[in-house]
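Per your request, structure below.
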């Protein structure tokens, strides 16, 4: 089973960016934890990071064949109708993740445009949010696969 991981804008700066909020782990360190977990739970992951909204939309549109998506839309969480619509259009279940607890921060971060079209949201556990997100995505994708197998047999 294939799961797509998407990191949004400025997450390439993890490790040096606002360490008091996002911690000191780099994106490469988070990605290697994700790869280790993927191996353990027997899923294939593809990891993508972009600072550009359109590139994220293009990647979601091309995600046919993936069982689920784990996405940290970063600042686009609070602004992007385009990313929200792309997720809604593909119908691939998406797990929204955030390192920080967006509800404990500035008011403009309390609203996620992505949450209503996501299967669920994990927010506030640092890099662990991604690992929980990957486990959740694998469960959802597995359940969906089992369901469609049952339907066809
Ligand atoms: C973030 C939270 C967003 O509000 C912020 O713009 C980010 C990172 C998080 O992972 O905590 O860039 O998505």
């Amino acid at each position: 089973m294939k799961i797509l991981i998407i990191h949004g804008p400025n997450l390439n700066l993890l490790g040096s960016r606002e360490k008091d909020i996002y911690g000191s782990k780099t994106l490469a360190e988070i990605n290697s934890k994700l790869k280790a977990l993927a191996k353990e739970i027997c899923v294939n992951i593809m990891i993508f990071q972009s600072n550009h909204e359109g590139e994220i939309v293009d990647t979601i549109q091309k995600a046919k064949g993936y069982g689920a998506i784990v996405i940290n839309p970063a600042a686009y969480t609070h602004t992007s109708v385009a990313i929200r619509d792309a997720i809604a259009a593909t119908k691939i279940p998406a797990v929204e993740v955030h390192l920080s607890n967006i509800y404990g921060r500035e008011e403009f971060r309390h609203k996620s445009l992505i949450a209503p079209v996501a299967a669920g949201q994990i927010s506030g556990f640092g890099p662990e949010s991604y690992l929980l997100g990957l486990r959740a995505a694998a469960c959802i994708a597995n359940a969906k696969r089992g369901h469609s197998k049952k339907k066809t047999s």
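The two ends are 20 Å apart (CA to CA).

Regards,
D.
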